[in-house]
Amino acid sequence: MTDEQVIDLVNRTLAEEFELNLADLTPEAHLITDLGLDSLDFVDMVVVLQNAFHVSLREEPSIQQIRTVGEIHQLVIAKKRELDAQS
Amino acid sequence: MPRRVVITGAGALSPYGHGVAPLLAGLGANRSAVSHRPELGTIPGLRCQVAARVPAVDLAVIPRKARRYMSAMSGFATLAAEEAIQRAGLTPEQCQDGQTGVCIGSTTGSTLECEDFFRDYLVNPDISRLKSTHFFKIMNHSCAANVALALGTRGHQMAPSAACATGTVAIGLGYEAIANGHQLRMLCGGADEYHPLTSAVFDVMNAASVAYNDRPTCTPRPFDRQRDGVVCGEGAGILLLEDLDEARRRGAPILGEILAYATNTDPGSIANPDALITRDCMARALRQANLAPDQIDLVNAHATGTREGDIAEGQAIGMVFGNRVPVQSLKGHLGHTMAACGPLELIGVLHMIQHNCLFPTLNLDDPDPDCGALNLVRETCQAQLDCVLKTSFALGGVNTAVVVRRLSE
Questions:
Q1: What is the pLDDT of residues A20-64, one digit of tens each?
Q2: Chain A residue with minimum CA distance to B136
Q3: Structural domain tally of chain A?
Q4: Domain range B5-249, its CATH number among 3.20.20.100, 1.10.8.50, 1.10.645.10, 3.40.47.10
């Protein structure tokens, strides 16, 4: 899976789950102030991304600091690479 | 001195569609809302293949942040509650003063959502796939909580669960909250979403309709000799109850006054009602309303079309009212919408009072003498209607009766 494919799937997953426009999912978009997500949405965001990518994100130390769409992209890309390296 | 309580708004999501208007149009046309459900025929052991389903409704009109906690039943309840306050001439903002409460129940939490969870969990018991919002759809007070959150109400939140009497119990509790001066307004009612398990519950007790799968609009048949059981349905019925003085102060439309709510328990059987205890419940409602039996113009019966239930209720009505008072059931039209049935049928009653007209009991072709010598309404007719006693009963021995009347000074 290329980085572009990861970004595309992250965006489509978030757009579907939170009923967002794909065009609004820019890397700099703030999850709370721009996209209107809240703490329960953050929990469900982790769940749907884990299901989409078959990775474990819940215990990632950086997950609590994530605030933008771009930061999610980077986290998932890193996790995918880590997983790919292990396999 | 108890406060007087009136009904100033109504909302419906019924097997006839979204809104009070299609509900009253369906009842007025004596049209059955029951249909054949071929998908039920794929379930081994389930003989009943008819149901009264809500037509497709777009729950996405509810904003995502409110909708994410809702199963279908909470969506139904929210749409009906929004209609009730709109018809009462209120806005959600006017219901956010702490003087408006919510009392809405369902027979269970969402069975569909439970099924979804366990289908996955029993194969792979791992909760990491579980969304944070899932539990809120399953909890027993899901409808009440979701309506309260969607509308922003800050008063009472109650969620009775009394099987088929749930909606009427909710109306009773809301009535008491206002009569006792605790709230000025209460959004009251019940909601349920259909699941084959609902029909199965009655089918295994031989209390579901199974003989009319090829003629779905001919069942259920309250008080008819050929009745063979319940037809399960779904929906939501919500009434806005209001303190009379408050309703008058703001010039609200007044659909009727609640004079009494009575309830008692039949401890003899969890499933088979006792006519004497049912009679006591109706008599208690009359005493509370300070009315004699001959001051009641109509009994709107629970009468679901089961063999035993209709006999017990018919005999109880006969003991209290004799054969003078007209008696009808709306289950022949609507099927049994479970927690929603009491309030949906009460909306029909309020309409009948307003228009001095009686809807018949649909599918009542041949009255069963075992149900007593009752004055059963068999065709639409005009009659002066001021006071109506409405009953709802439930598995678990729950009996309820409400008395409503046209508002008089």
A1: 999 999 999 999 999 999 999 999 999 999 999 999 999 888 888
A2: A40
A3: 1
A4: 3.40.47.10
CA B330 to chain centre: 11
Three-class SS string for chain A?
A: CCHHHHHHHHHHHHHHHHCCCHHHCCCCCECCCCCCCCHHHHHHHHHHHHHHHCCCCCCCHHHHHCCEHHHHHHHHHHHHHHHHHHC
pTM: 0.96
Give the minimum alpha-carbon distance from A44 to chain B in angstroms, rounded to a whole number.
5
A40 with B133: Cβ contact below 8 A: yes
Q: Give the domain CATH number at A66.
A: 1.10.1200.10
Quote the ipTM score. Answer: 0.91
Q: Are B240 and B84 in contact (CB under 8 A)?
A: yes
Spatial contact of B337 and B221, defined as CB atoms under 8 Å apart:
no
Of all residues in chain B, the percent with pLDDT exceeding 70 is 100
Q: Give pLDDT < 50 ranges for chain B.
A: none
Read off the pLDDT of residues B53-63 as tens digits, 9 standing for 90 and up: 999 999 999 99
Query: Measured between CA atoms, how close is A33 to chain B, in angstroms?
Result: 15
Query: At B292, is the secondary structure helix, strand, or coil?
Result: coil
Stretch (H or E) spanning B276: helix B275-289
B336 a catalytic residue: yes
